[in-house]
Amino acid sequence: MSVPEYFELNGGDRMPKIGFGTWQSSDEVLEKAVLAALDAGYRHFDTAHAYENEAALGRALRKWIGDDPAKRRELFVVTKLPPGGNRPDLVREYFDTSIRNLGLDYIDMYLMHTPFAFEHVPGDLHPKNPDGTMKVDYSTDLAAVWKTLLKLKESGQVRHLGVSNLNLEQLTRLSKIEKPACLQVEVHLLCQQKALVEAAKKLSIPIVAYSPLGSKALADALAAKTGREYPDLLQLPVVKRIAEAHDRTPAQVLLRYTVQRGLAAIPKSTNPTRIKQNLSIWDFELSDSEMKDLGALDKGEEGRICDFTFFPGIEKHAEFPFKN
């Protein structure tokens, strides 16, 4: 089954279906990993203002670009408006900070990171009340924020606008104003988001899967707090069986399954060998029976890892996306 390596976007731009994730990476480690990823052939890089590593990513990218503007055009760089910026009057301020951090003339894709919002507290991306709950901004107007984001394109400093962590109702609502260029959400074997994926396809909105390998670091951290068990996707018997049959790594099988479903994926690794392996998924394909076996592992909402419970009290926000 031949799978295109890119999503074709408006204006002739192409978004590679395998990108490089940067969440939870320190600056020094990230810079080395990004340079290794560039050498391996990655051209899609995903960060966010809330990750606090835009500057490190920017340094590595600029080192690779050097004085060659053609190299910049090879890249597809994504960053995101943080929850504290989900107000029309703050969009430009946060965008300007991100593009300054990255040190680039333009950003290829700018995403609304979440549909919910925190209070804007300068210097504090995750403000909390004395009792440990989040300082939630309950006044969020998603439509107004989206319209303000759309105006950024007029500046020429951002080529495409998308959204992240929205549910189907929220995605449909914003699509009536203007369709996002992509939707980035958690998708992996245990949380396959089948209904959302099909709905997005009908709307012709590409989906980018974050945590496609299961985000073991986050899963382990949450398990330590909650006692809930999160299986290691790379160790699942079905995945290991299929990997052995194709002489591939379990991670390659998970990523191939994702793109064969018609999605993009942004795996994260700082290991040079695994960085190369995660991009090398275009020369094999999974059979119909293997796709069916992997599809049967879906646990729906029970399989979700990033449910934002690490932000106490955020579920009270009217736009919290996982109520049902």
From TrEMBL:
Record-annotated active site: 51 (proton donor)
A Pfam cross-reference name: Aldo_ket_red
Presence of the UniProt keyword Oxidoreductase in the record: yes
Record flagged with keyword Oxidoreductase: yes
Keyword set, alphabetical order: Oxidoreductase
Residues carrying the site annotation Lowers pKa of active site Tyr: 80
PANTHER family membership: ALDO/KETO REDUCTASE (PTHR11732)
Protein name in UniProt: Alcohol dehydrogenase [NADP(+)]-like
